[in-house]
Amino acid sequence: MSQERLKIVAGNWKMHKTYQEGRDLAASIVEKLTPTQTMVVLCPPFIHLKGISTIINDITHLELGAQNCHFAEQGAYTGEVSAPMLRSVGCRWVILGHSERREYFGEDEALLAKKVDAALAHELRPIFCCGEKLEVREAGKHVELVQQQLQGALFHLSAEQFGRVVIAYEPVWAIGTGQTATPGQAQEMHAAIRQMVADKYGSEVADGLSILYGGSVKPANAKELFARPDVDGGLIGGASLKADDFVAIVNAF
Ligand code: PGA
Asked: Is 217 close to ligand 1, i.e. is its CB under 6 Å away?
């Protein structure tokens, strides 16, 4: 049940860009991208998804993702968006458990486990975010915390289900701060994550897992990060809002 370990660069636009600005950004990325084996995923706000799907249509290795989804298929959940809805506009990926969702919207592992299940049930691949705050790292508990996050939200999955998951390690102290983790810090955590997955699901599943780094990735530091053996790509926030920067990061492989 081995699977190919994908190289992935995903752009998390967060709550940026009006509809037309978003379409323009997507069109500009399409224009600048050269053929690549790296899977490129654009994660704009929900309401941009359909309009951007028609721009990236038919371009191989360029796919759409959402930044969140609800755990239920449908129902009385005012203001929420479900996994089947995302599939219906061409999404193939969904970011789950981003630290901003955890911090501002109270998302925890129990809720995220349900969201992961919903995504997988509707053929969306979760990009599951994990990572520690500064005080946790300073206390030397960062690996332990990430282990708890994976255990709580992912390790109920079967090996087959887990094979569809991508993990993004995003130390909270590095997100939007300009303070990137060093390639050594990223590699150390990514290797620890791969080991946790190997212990749980075996080495074949662990070898096939893509582990992305996120937190102030820029064209200037991407190459060094992506050169590390367990860093399979990046989840890019700020730098994904500029086509030139984002494409330069894709080309850093
Ligand atoms: P950043 O955000 O690249 O702006 O640090 C990364 C993220 O939050 O996914």
From this structure: yes
